[in-house]
Structure formats: structure tokens, C-alpha cells
Amino acid sequence: MFGDGEVQRVRLGDQSRVRCNARMTPKQHRMFCRLDEDADGFLQMAMTQLHLSGRAYDRKLKVARTIADIDHSEIMNATYIGEAVQDRTLVRNLWA
Q1: Which has more pLDDT, 94 or 26?
Q2: If you average pLDDT over residues 33-48, what whole number do you get?
Q3: What are the DSSP calls for 16-78, one per residue?
């Protein structure tokens, strides 16, 4: 079993200067943030309905990737995306 952050370091590899999900590049998103069909549809709907930017899309992927890592899942499902979207929406509502 890997400790906190170890899954990210192993996934990103020794060749990368990136050591955690928060620092992933768009190329790494495409490689490591595999969404199932429901997750992809949910994220697209959230982007449209919440008027999220491209940067917000990237942040959602990174947060969802981390949630999936905690759950020891390679594939990101709609639950992980939902948690990532809800997390940001909750923060936005608290500070509004």
C-alpha cells in the first residue's frame, strides 16, 4: 500500500519534475485522468451549467484524480467528478 502522495509520484515517474496531481500539465491530464463515460458527461454538464473556465476544468480533473487516488481507482467516475465540482461550489458559496 502506498502512503500519501506516493501513488502520484509513482504514476508521474522519475523522469517528470512534477510530483503531485496539483502540478500536472495538460499532457499529463490526458495521460492520467481517464474518465468513464458517465464522468465525462457529468463534467461537461457541470462546465456548461456552472459556466466554468478551461482553468476550472483542469482544476476539477486534478482534484478528482486525487479523490480517485485516495479510493485506489485508476478510472475516474462521476462520483469523483461530483466531489471535485461540489468542493469548489461549496467554497465559492461560503466566500460569496
Answers
A1: 26
A2: 94
A3: -S--SGGG--HHHHHHH-PBPHHHHHHHHHHHHHTT--HHHHHHHHHHHHHHHHHTT-SSB-H
Q: Grid coordinates 461560503 are at which residue? A: 94
Q: Which structural domain, as residue segments, surrounds residue 22?
A: 6-95
Predicted confidence (pLDDT) at residue 15 exceeds the cutoff of 60:
yes
Decide if 1 is inside a domain: no
CATH code, domain with 38:
1.10.8
Position 86 scores a pLDDT of: 87
Measured between alpha carbons, how far is residue 58 from residues 2, 27, 87 in Å? 25, 11, 14
